[in-house]
């Protein structure tokens, strides 16, 4: 259970602004409770404790953020097209600070890779990172986004525009192709989501 040392009033304002459901605490010691996805935050004097299966649903909103992070993404597809899923992880000097994996319906492998990159960048933005070093094992996606290769498919062109728009929201960014073994956690999360579907 992550414990975030913070001002509970500031944390409540941040969560409310993000549209998180808020309610009063269950005991005299609890200042308030908030729920989003598979996470529940409970505020006490000087701290907020996050519980649940996916604490990153709330911890990303509660932490001050800022700074630089490594962002890993991967898409998985069983068949091409076929059932697909995405995985992503954000790593800072504190270790893995947020990660996720989910199914994205029936897509091609390249579409799944773009979906993973978009979700990873949205999570990095929501976490409040100023600078991101993005890493993925899809050479096609990396080279298309960097402008080294053309995106001839209309859908992939739209994905590329969305990704570039998200990247421009950071003070600085890099995007690099890495071997699959370097991208192992994002790959695991995507495949776990497919296995659980």
What this model shows, in words?
With 197 residues, the protein is α+β, with helices and mostly antiparallel strands. It folds into two domains: 3-62, TATA-Binding Protein (2-Layer Sandwich); 68-196, Nucleotidyltransferase, domain 5. 36% of the residues lie in helices and 35% in strands. The chain contains six helices and ten strands; from the N terminus they run E-H-E-E-E-E-H-E-E-E-H-E-H-H-E-H. It has helices at 8-17, 56-62, 109-127, 139-145, 154-167, 184-196, and strands at 3-5, 21-24, 32-36, 39-44, 47-51, 68-77, 82-92, 95-107, 131-136, 172-177. A five-stranded antiparallel β-sheet has the order 1-5-4-3-2, with helices on one face. Strands 8-7-6-9-10 form a five-stranded mixed β-sheet. Helix 2 (56-62) packs across helix 3 (109-127) and helix 3 packs parallel to helix 5 (154-167). It is elongated, with a radius of gyration of 18 Å. It starts with a strand and ends with a helix. The mean pLDDT is 91.
Our Rg estimate from Cα atoms comes to 18 Å
Question: Strand share of the residues?
Answer: 35-45%
CATH H-level name of the largest domain... which superfamily? Ribonuclease H-like superfamily/Ribonuclease H
Inertia-based shape: elongated
Q: What is the rounded distance between the termini?
A: 26 Å
Strand order of the largest sheet: 1-5-4-3-2
Count of spatially separate domains:
2
The H-and-E topology, N to C, reads as EHEEEEHEEEHEHHEH
Do you know the CATH topology of the largest domain?
A: Nucleotidyltransferase, domain 5
Kindly state the mean pLDDT as a whole number? 91
Protein name: Ribonuclease HI
InterPro entries: RNaseH-like_sf, RNaseH_domain, RNaseH_sf, RnhA-like_halobact
Organism: Halobium salinum
Keywords: Hydrolase
């Amino acid at each position: 259970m992550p414990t975030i040392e913070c001002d509970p009033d500031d944390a409540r304002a941040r969560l409310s602004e993000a549209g998180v459901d808020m309610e009063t605490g269950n005991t005299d010691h609890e200042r308030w409770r908030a729920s989003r996805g598979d996470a529940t935050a409970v505020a006490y004097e000087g701290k907020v404790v996050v519980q649940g299966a996916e604490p990153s649903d709330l911890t990303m909103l509660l932490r001050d953020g800022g700074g630089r992070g490594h962002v890993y993404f991967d898409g998985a597809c069983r068949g091409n097209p076929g059932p697909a899923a995405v995985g992503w992880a954000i790593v800072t000097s504190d270790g893995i600070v947020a990660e996720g994996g989910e199914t994205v319906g029936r897509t091609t492998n390249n579409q799944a890779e773009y979906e993973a990159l978009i979700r990873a960048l949205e999570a990095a933005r929501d976490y409040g990172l100023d600078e991101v070093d993005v890493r993925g094992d899809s050479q096609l996606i990396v080279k298309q986004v960097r402008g080294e290769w053309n995106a001839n498919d209309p859908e992939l062109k739209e994905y590329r525009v969305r990704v570039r728009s998200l990247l421009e929201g950071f003070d600085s960014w890099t995007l690099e192709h890495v071997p699959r073994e370097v991208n192992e956690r994002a790959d695991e999360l995507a495949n776990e989501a497919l296995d659980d579907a």
